[in-house]
Amino acid sequence: MSQHTWFIIAIIIYMAVMLAIGYWSYRQTDEYDDYVLAGRGLNPFVAALSAGASDMSGWLLLGLPGALFVTGMSELWIAIGLLIGAWANWKWVAPRLRAYTEVADDSITLPSFFENRLADRSHLLRVVSSIIIIVFFTFYVSSGMVSGGRYFESTFGAAYIDGMLIVAVITVTYTFIGGFLAVSYTDAVQGTIMFVSLIVVPVAGLLFLDHPGDIWTWATSHDYGPYKDGVGNPTYFNLISGVSAAAVIGNLAWGLGYFGQPHIIVRFMALRSPADAKQGRLIGVGWMLFSIAGATFVAIVGTVFFGQNPDIAIVDQKSYETIFLDMGRVLFHPLIAGLILTAVLAAIMSTISSQLLVTSTSLIEDLFKLLKKDLPNENVMINLSRTAVVAVAVVAGVLAINPSDSILGLVAFAWAGFGSAFGPLVLFMLYWRRLNVPGAVAGMITGAVVAFAWGQSPLSDSLYEMVPGFLSSVVVTVLVTLATKAPTSEITDRFDTATERSYGAAANPDLDFDKAYKKA
Question: Which of 116, 276, 377, 407 could disulfide-pair with 44, CB 3.0 to 4.6 Å?
Fold first, then answer.
């Protein structure tokens, strides 16, 4: 069989597994809370890999290795910031959010938690935050579909629209039928594929070389990739070469975005108990650390692999983002290479499904339920959520048919926008007893506006908009909260209860704290 045929077989196997998980999840889903949040029964392994896979997307497999291959280790600062941010998110947000969302009227979305945490009877917090999620995640989903179409276009020579529709239909199908459980378990499988691929490709590449030790010297003194003058890239292993202090701060600040990403922190809300956050942190941060290390070694090994073998062509001769795929294609049997190719597809689809479900859930849980006084039964609510999944996917698909720079530009802003608008707010919600509604609303809006305005101005060339957006949100939240009325004793008592629950679970990880709490 031809290489192309083997690749198609690998893709079919992958798609079949995703649909099978969707069907299994459908059989496990009986109630609305199951569809939206897996009944708060997600084990830490699935939660950790699901959060990682939905976060990293194709950047980990394509963008990061390509940037490190071309420029060198000075491109690692974003990865370092993300690693620190992921650790902090699991450490400080996960246990408290899991405890507090249950105490706060069993909130199952981030906007509903914001409202219930502060007893916001105006519903302003819930409506504004849900609109932000719906608008930007719709564009995010659209961008993922664009990536899927381009993946099939470049890998198989298929028409862009055909590839986009294949990715959209499969992803929407398992999300539609299985809900949060399907999204989480498919993400876990996809995260495993990404992890294994990022380990085996650089190891196989290293074994392929006649002199593996060359990986530490080749890039700094020999031609490879874009370097063709015989001296290579002498500063390849220098972390600070050509990087300003502002650039380092801005790149590290990417980690601040984790605190405000709804599709990531919703996994914390779905954990079985606050105590599971500790195990989830070890698994999730470990997964990310080894995956980033794998991507880094793909680039380092790649400098020698392609430099010593100029007859092996790198498909992407501009940004060299295909080095991971090209190494896999050369080193392995076509079936294995095809499965490695699915790692990129897995990264794309895991992000689409997570954001698609969060967006559709916000439509039903945060907007529809506010408008509808008499709620329908569980089955109708599940079907409404499924309808919302299709509706969001259709809108995103229409946007993806003719992709534009404006869509991609909004996606670039979304990480900083969510991080600036929701990041400080989540931390204040969990750790500041004095927080009130005016401070929360003012800080959220300020963070989003400053991040957007900064990102659209020439200032963004000097400093990533996450830094001013996040800091301005913190300052405004504190000033407005202190200048307005303190929260009621009902709100502060609930804060104390949630704090006790998160501390109690951390101190007694073997205790079924939920059962003990309900009994008390």
Answer: 276
CA–CA dist 192, 211 (Å, integer): 30
Q: Is 224 helix (H, G, I), strand (E, B) or coil?
A: strand
Tell me, yes or no, whether 166 lies in a domain. yes
Structure tokens at 324: 């991971």
Separation between Cα atoms, residue 520 and residue 514, nearest integer Å: 10
d(CA 295, CA 300) in angstroms, rounded, equals 9
Best CA proximity match to 51, nearest among 283, 368, 207: 283
What SS3 state is found at 245?
A: helix
Residue 16 belongs to some domain of the structure: no
How many structural domains comprise the chain?
A: 1
pLDDT band at 513 (very low <50, low <70, confident <90, very high): very low
**What gap in Å lies between CA 45 and CA 284, rounded to an integer?**
8
How distant, in Å, are the alpha carbons of 194, 418, 496 from that of 432? 38, 20, 11
- Here the CATH number for the domain that contains residue 189 is 1.20.1730.10
Q: What pLDDT is attached to residue 3?
A: 83
Residue 61 belongs to what domain range?
39-514
Return the structure tokens found at 401: 């048919």
Q: Residues 352, 138: contact at Cβ < 8 Å?
A: no
18 belongs to a structural domain: no
**C-alpha span between 249 and 77 (Å, rounded):** 9
* Rounded (5°) CA angle 477-453-466: 60
Please, what is the end-to-end C-alpha distance for the chain in angstroms?
Answer: 66
Q: Under DSSP, is residue 153 helix (H, G, I), strand (E, B) or coil?
A: helix
- Give strand pairing partners of 227: 224
pTM: 0.90
**Residue 473: which of 427, 421, 430 has the closest Cα?**
421
3-state SS, one letter per residue, for 350-398: HHHHHHHHHHHHHHHHHHHHHHCCCCCCHHHHHHHHHHHHHHHHHHHHH
pLDDT tens string 195-245: 999 999 999 999 999 999 999 999 999 999 899 888 899 999 999 988 899
- How far apart are the C-alpha atoms of 507 and 166, rounded to whole Å? 47
Q: Coil, strand, or helix at residue 2?
A: coil
For 20-54, the pLDDT digits (tens) are 999 999 999 888 989 999 889 999 999 999 999 98
Measured distance CA(86)–CA(346) in Å, rounded: 20
508 to 165, 191, 424, 496, 512: CA distances (angstroms): 48, 30, 29, 18, 9
As a whole number of angstroms, the distance between CA 253 and CA 237 comes to: 22
Q: Within 10 Å of residue 517's Cβ, how many Cβ atoms?
A: 18
Question: What separation in angstroms does the CA of 404 have from each of 155, 356, 408?
Answer: 21, 20, 7
Cβ within 8 Å of residue 485, ≥6 positions away: 436
Kindly state the greatest CA–CA separation across the chain. Answer: 74
Look at phi and psi of residue 38 and say left if phi exceeds 0, alpha if psi is from -120 to 50, else beta.
Answer: left
Residue 21 lies in a domain: no
